[in-house]
Amino acid sequence: MPVYNLSARFSILDVFLSEIRDVSIQKDRMRFRRNIERIGEIMAFEISKTLSNQLKEIQTPIAKMQVKQFQQLPVLATILRAGLPLHQGFMNYFDGSDAGFISAYRHHLDQGFEIKVEYLAAPSLENKDLILIDPMLATGKSITSCMAQIQKLGKPHQLLIAAVLATPEGIEEILSKFPDAEIYCAAIDQGLNEHQYIVPGLGDAGDLCFGEKISSI
Q: Which of 35, 118, 165, 182 is the most exposed place for a label (fewest CB within 10 A)?
């Protein structure tokens, strides 16, 4: 199954989710960022179970032994700015990974919007495991637009999408463009409203992390 909803079974993750949604708690900006980071750590742990490993011999103070290690660390790419705390959670666990950064935003038109991608800095992705990190998988357009640019840096061996909140519409959009992708999310919400925002959602993740913006240009 290419979609993994980590809150399908209760855990401490649900507590962190409830706090980032709760308007009486989420205004504490430091706590909001830390909860997003914690969710990233939990997701990193879950994803780590699926990555290829190999045996390596080490020396303990008593004897030599065989231990499991990653065959290769994944590349961790995030969409600025909202993705930074979630990305940090992944970096806390995959602390030797290369990182990628993409600047993308909604450019609103008279009717609807388009995604503008203006900056990309990432290592080669050829035959790498790529984890693309974005806290809100709403329409799916941001991730598909970013992937169109990222793929110029090589074809990943495996594409994993990590989001705090996802919608059925966003999941469908991703899998229609990237059927081999695997999607990990902390929760799947009911859908989108008329403005294409997640319901019940949590509001604007970037603003809650870093303050309201005057402009996205």
A: 118
